[in-house]
Amino acid sequence: MTNAPSTPAPAFPHRHLLGIEGLTPLQILHLLDKADDEVLVSRQVEKKKNVLRGRTQINLFFEASTRTQSSFEIAGKRLGADVMNMSVASSSVKKGETLIDTAATLNAMRPDILVVRHHAAGAVHLLARKVSCSVINAGDGAHEHPTQALLDALTIRRHKGTIEGLTVAICGDIVHSRVARSNILLLNALGARVKLVGPSTLLPSGAERLCVETFTDMKKGLEGADIVMMLRLQRERMNGSFVPSVREYFRYWGLDSEKLAWAAPGALVMHPGPMNRGVEIDPEVADGPQSLIAEQVEMGVAVRMAVLETLAEHLPNA
Ligand code: CP
């Protein structure tokens, strides 16, 4: 008896992208490799591909966004999808419709991919269980922002060649940050050393469970850092006062050229945006030669193209 040839397991077996949690290092690297190819496509004069031709992508954002929403729109259009941006401000959510009813209504229009940002942690996972299309988490509360972590990793890898063995200092308001959480998971998975730096009120408890080191002293936190990732104070998620004043905060934890000199020579500076100049970062550093901030935005389009194209392989009739 001969054995029937077995079908190889897909490189990325998931129907949704809800978080970095649950992805293997190989699955993360698969998305990064694909995103490297999408950078080349995006730098051509002719940027159109046909892989999502005939597919419908709905961007459903319950929270404000500049970078994520516009890059998902550009990414979908570059891949040939019909993209609809659903404005929550003018939707029936304002009349009291629930998230699930909104999702069921959109699902009835047979979209293929739903890109969702919501202010509640876990809301995107809940929604993914109620719809028949693929769902991408574009940020849920303080929980996860997987495509941000992927674009950060792509930016780092294109400069350093690898993530493994690097020291990455994530500085600022960690406790309220979905960007920090997704980055911690991804950087740990790919073998980086992660240091969290900020005032004790903005550092998470149980850091040992996250496999990271924590520092309230910026000098010690930045020591040896190859990458310095700054985060803004997320006042919309703060309940009460977490820092004495903006001036005090900048003095101790704001990144200026003097503090950047405490990191490894030639350390690269990153920020997911939106940036508050003069609060967590000095304009001189944000616009300086070590800054990768504009490049992160470019990588955002490439990573979102890679994610859309990868998930499209699981769509019916793909
Ligand atoms: N980094 C990020 O998520 O930015 P937006 O809020 O502008 O999408």
Would you give an account of this structure?
By secondary structure, this protein is α/β, with parallel strands linked by helices. The protein is 36% helix and 14% strand. It has a five-stranded parallel sheet. Helix 1 packs across helix 5 and helix 5 (146-160) crosses helix 11 (293-312).
Topology of helices and strands:
Blueprint: H1 25-42, E1 56-61, H2 67-78, E2 82-87, H3 99-107, E3 113-118, H4 123-128, E4 134-140, H5 146-160, E5 167-171, H6 178-189, E6 193-197, E7 213-215, H7 218-222, E8 227-230, H8 246-253, H9 257-260, E9 268-270, H10 283-286, H11 293-312
Parallel strand pairs: 1-2, 1-3, 3-4, 5-6, 5-8, 6-7, 8-9
Helix pairs in contact: 1-5, 1-11, 2-11, 5-6, 5-11
The structure holds phosphoric acid mono(formamide)ester.
Quick overview of this protein structure:
The protein is α/β, with parallel strands linked by helices and 318 residues long.
Task: Pick out its properties.
318 residues; alpha/beta; 5-stranded parallel beta sheet; 36% helix; 14% strand; binds phosphoric acid mono(formamide)ester
